[in-house]
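Example record

The entry below shows one chain as it appears in the dataset: sequence first, then structure tokens.
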Amino acid sequence: MKQSVYKAAIIAALALWPVGQALAETIRIGEMSSYSANPQSTDSYRKGWELAVKEINEAGGVLGKRLQVISRDDTGRPDAALRAAQELVTNEKVALLTGTYLSHVAVAVADFANTNKVFFLVGQPQSDAIVWERGNRYTFRLFNSNRSQVLALAQLAAKLPAKRWATIAPNYEFGQSVVGAFRQELQRLRPDVEFVNEQWPALGKLEAGATVQAMIAARPDAVFNATFGADLAKFVREGNMRGLFEGREVFSVLTGLPEYLDPLGDEAPEGWTVTGYPVEQIDTPAHNAFRTAYEKSYGQPPKVGSLIGYSEMKALKAIIEKAGSTDTEALIAAARGTTFDAPIGPVTFRPQDHQSTFGFFIGKLAVEGGKGKMVDWKFYDGADYQLPDDVVKTLRPAEAIR
């Protein structure tokens, strides 16, 4: 009896030994985001990718190896991000780069990846320059593009009687890109529309009173907003107080995201049409599992940053497994066309522009129980809101298509 128990223990130990040995090896991922500059969004993003890495490693890792994330704070500045990228690649010997938060930072790191031939998966930034005008063969983007959300918003806006539009957005890559895309698409659908006022405050430095008054003076029929964070709160407060939103439709990107909606409390602007993330209302098995795991780990519901961070690591797992290694060229070949399961549904990286088909939500804002809430929302499959291939070819550098 003792001998049989001893033999069983030996067999069990031998069965476990290769896995233990393999997971002693690691795949090192270089990650960065604007942790100190934008904690409101990046803290939840970090929690998301940490949860995914924990799940991946507990399930056996990737190619029998443990994922190890080497994280850096890019402070929201391109120069700091470039120093971090160089240090991660040269000193930490990471296999690839991922992350970033602000679009102009992502563009800078994408240029670094192209020059240094390093695979780079962009996480949160949404500027389309990342995959089009400044796109390169080493850079892929996870989150949905400005264009995909704007195409859907513009289709809804085109149905309004409004002809005179005012816009407000932060004066950097993201704001310029999203306003330009919305204006172009809306005027394509409605040639009679005109944009009578554009406001371009510096990020985080909105002078809300003067800005709102200038917009009112232009007598717009409707408003398109792309401010977020502290700028959004100031814009909403002054707009409500001065009557900017009375009798006017407002279309807004990002405002329905928990990161930006929750801080508004009962000042959330009712009736706005927004993109967002109705996290507690999404009732699918995959999303319920994600939300439950996140709440168990952190004692709070996930935000969109959490969703992106989590999906980012799940995407990398799928890409590395398909590649069979962390060789850069193998990763590029594998990522083109790879599909993985995100909590909100399957996501595919388009071979033609390296943009994913990550979906998004559009709905109206209401105030319930003293806080903002998305209502009458709809999920939009990102695959249905992409530019056609012939247009993409005119936007993307020829060397990026190789």
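Notes for this example: Residues 1-22 have pLDDT under 50 and may be disordered. The longest helix spans residues 2-23.
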